[in-house]
Amino acid sequence: MEDLIAGQPLFSGLPGDVAATAAGCARNVTFGTGRLLLAEGDEATTLLLLRRGRVAIEVHGGDRKTMVVETVGPGQVVGWSWMVPPHTWSFDARALEPVGAIAVDAACLRAKAEADPAFGYELLGRISQALLQRLQATRLRLLDLYGDVDAG
Amino acid sequence: MSTRAEAAAPSSGPHPLTPRLFGVVGRTVETSDVVTLALAPHGGDGIEFRHGQFNMLTAFGVGEAAISVSSAPGDEGPIEHSVRDVGPVTHALCGLPVGGTVGLRGPFGTAWGIRDDRLASGADAVIVAGGIGMAPLRGLARDLLARQHRGHGRLYVLVGARSPDQVVFAEELESWRRDGAFVDVSVDQPGPGWPGTVGVVTTLLDSAPFDAARATAFVCGPEVMMRFTARALVHRGVDAERIRISLERNMQCGLGLCGHCQLGPLLVCRDGPVVPYAGVGAELLRERQR
User: Fold this and answer.
1) CB-CB under 8 Å, B188 with A146
2) Are B247 and B287 in contact (CB under 8 A)?
3) Chain B: residue nearest A73 by CA?
4) Which of A96, B69, B96, B220 is the most buried (most CB within 10 A)?
5) Which residues pair with B158 in a beta bridge?
6) Please, what is the average pLDDT of chain A?
7) DSSP of B25-80, one letter per residue?
8) Backbone angles phi, psi at B283, to 5 degrees
């Protein structure tokens, strides 16, 4: 498990003891096509690191059909709500194909981060970087880059 | 790489400011606002061009617009231009029927530059296109796929579009995938049943297994998209010298005479549209109106 964790971009390049610390909270999980990895409103208990397969981040729109906000793939993280109170998922995440992931117990991870500030600082830095990339990608999509233009 | 060195003077027509008459011999509706016109000269030979160059097409009675060639130099048959309906001239061009007539001046500008030592030695080629940006890359992709079939490095084609029905050349992309190219498409707004990636085109770089250290990348699309794509390619490990981008400006004369397309130190119609990202390209993509 330690090697699997160390192979994930979120943890790559970190000292071995960091991966070992995270591995102590982790297990392998799989999801079949169409299965929900997590559901809006449920308690956010797990950090999911995708190893294979693609996942759609969805929101259901009441009388409208379910809308896919974005997709994430191998090497990416599914779900951030485990980090901050109230630890409740804000979106659904559904497997578009057979998915393999590392599930890291969030309470365990938070406890280790609090007990070992160096680990917690490194972890938070990595997560911030991933969140920043996701935020920048979202901003780009807001621009509607391929929309109407005014030209000849 | 020297795209300047590859710039070519127009090779056809009695005078570069005088359009030749070409007939529309084929018309393909690619998406709701993109049409590909197949053009053949009313008399005389066709024109010689290279990947990435553009022609000035005249919609008679309306005006003239710079349109990239979307076929490959070695393709059999008429020359093709894929036009997006975004204004009066392109609207008129898109509406032309088979049998219609356009004026054509060109070709103008610099080329993608497919002939270089790195590509010849079998390095991977990465095409990243956004929206109609696939048009000037389509012919290049065809020839790079032929290169792959000769055993000289794999072709990666990464495409971003607004929605699934706005993916230009969707059927041809699928045929390239069947023929062995790595092809991936991402959309901003998926419809029901879209099985692919949702997100900005740069996210596709993460799952494309090209050899970044040796790869050459060709990028075309909205300038914001090119800027972020080029940065992501560099972050992935592609040498900025090996990233080529295609700029778009208000081209009018095509000869570097009128100055309408000036961008920093360049006249895009003459010194572009294809420029290296390293140095001038990166600077130009950062240019902003103040």
Assistant:
1) yes
2) no
3) B207
4) B220
5) B128, B184
6) 88
7) EEEEEEETTEEEEEEEESSS------TT-EEEEEETTTEEEEEEB-S-TT-SSSEE
8) -65, -45
**What is the identity of the amino acid at A125?**
G
The fourth-level CATH superfamily of domain A2-146 is Jelly Rolls (2.60.120.10)
This model of the complex carries an ipTM of 0.82
Nearest by CB to residue A152, choosing from B65, B200, B203, is B65
Residue from the list B160, B195, B203 with its beta carbon closest to the beta carbon of A96: B195
Residue type, B2: S
Return the structure tokens found at A20.
């070992």
Q: CA B250, CA B259: separation in Å to the nearest integer?
A: 9
Closest-CA residue to B245 (of B232, B260, B258): B232
* Mean pLDDT of the region B145-162: 94
Q: Do A70 and B206 touch (CB under 8 A)?
A: no
Q: Taking CA atoms, what residue in B is nearest to A9?
A: B206
Task: Provide the residue ranges of all domains of chain A, joining segments of one domain with +.
Answer: 2-146
> What pTM does this model have?
0.89
The type of residue at B34 is V
DSSP per position, A69-119: EEEE-TT-EE--TTSSTT-B--SEEEESS-EEEEEEEHHHHHHHHHH-HHH
Q: Which of A71, A96, A148 minimises the CB distance to B199?
A: A71
Banded model confidence at residue A16, pLDDT cuts 50, 70, 90: low
Contact between A73 and B206 using a beta-carbon 8 Å cutoff: yes
